[in-house]
Amino acid sequence: MVAVDSIGSGTGSFVRVDPVTQRVRLGPDSAGYRVGVCWPEGGVDTVTVNDANLILGYLNPDNFLGGQVKLDRERATRLFKEQIADRLGIDVFEAAWGVHNLANLTLKLHLQQVMLGMGFGPEVFHLVGYGGGGPLHAIGYTHGLDLAGVMIPTWAPGFSAFGAACGEYGVRQEISTDIFVPPPAGVDPTGIALQIMRGAYDSLPPDVKGSVDEQLAQGLRLEAAMRGVLNQVALDQLSRAWSSLKGQIELEASREGLDPTRLRFVFGARMRYAGMLDDLEVQTGAPEIKPETLSELAEQFEVSFDKVYARAARSTEFGYQITRAVVTGYYESVRPTVPEESLDGETPAQGCRKDHRPIFWNGTWHESDVYEMDRVRAGNVLTGPCLVESPATTILVPPEYRLYMDRRRVFWVVRPGEDVAMYKGR
């Protein structure tokens, strides 16, 4: 599973000036595949971030989708001036630059929020810029972030499909549960754990209660005597839930014409401290449940908890609640591989540079080299300002930045002051 956090700031986002505040707003609605006013056939009347990028010289009007879609820069400039620049009382290129920068800032702030919300700084993350418009903004919205690395694969437009092709085919089933797991041995239960354990004692069947009473008569504390009973109850409940879910997956696989015996099962649960509101998912690779299963799940929960919350918030003494039982059956699939190329020198071959055109960056026009992405060789270093074009995406490299292509045809962003050598071993 992949957690997806959507940001409404794509290159198709509509751009408007608020009539009351005179502030520029991006989205949340979008032109989508219709690009912007620069493509008259799209039927769009409101300017978009794409229009701003075209005005600034970042997009090639004759090479959008390999030339299948012709963009009208003059129309984009005229309508952008009417709808945005004139209302702000500024030059159309300054207005377009402001919109481009606003899109970058929106992405950057959301990115920071996600990283810091997880409790980590940017230095532990690598960022992959992909999609059609992503590579155009990747360097802009990561500027100033101390990320471990920023990479842009040459297959960026098809990166999502590539990722789907790399994944295993899985069938997932889950069910709500209310299973209490006592604190581990050596941890004295307190609070809600004691309440649950004492309440469970009162509802025990007579034969089980008699066994517990014998242990109490020998001087064992109630919570110690109940720990083994409740662990066994939890194991039985979880085992039944997993077995039922496993059977459902096998039945579903059979209905789809797949061989259930080829499935690889992963068993998991969503757990939380007893009384806690939020739960976390943990897994065990064991094919069958065993006495150690509960302790393995609890240990994994503690590790996951420390990654998400402060360690000081641990509440092991409350015990655990399993809120959902989860089973996933996976089929091994043939996965695509990324071939490696031999490294050339840092200087691109003569045929790699196909054109040059002016681009507007931070208030200044720069003469920019334009490279054909497919002609860039592993080991080449491209120095900004430049543009790297393919039929379905464009990488914008601002002044003072560079790109290095590795053996797998992945571009690494070399930030100002960095040595290219630090990326050559990746």
UniProtKB/TrEMBL annotation:
InterPro entries given in the database record: ACX-like_C (IPR049517), Hydantoinase_A (IPR002821), Oxoprolinase-like (IPR045079)
Biological processes annotated in GO: glutathione metabolic process
Top-level taxon: Bacteria
Pfam families reported in the protein's UniProt record: Hydant_A_C, Hydantoinase_A
Molecular function in Gene Ontology: 5-oxoprolinase (ATP-hydrolyzing) activity
A single cellular component GO annotation: cytosol
Domain Acetophenone carboxylase-like C-terminal: 234-411
Sequence ranges assigned to domain Hydantoinase A/oxoprolinase in this UniProt record: 2-168
Protein name: Uncharacterized protein
Origin species: Kyrpidia spormannii
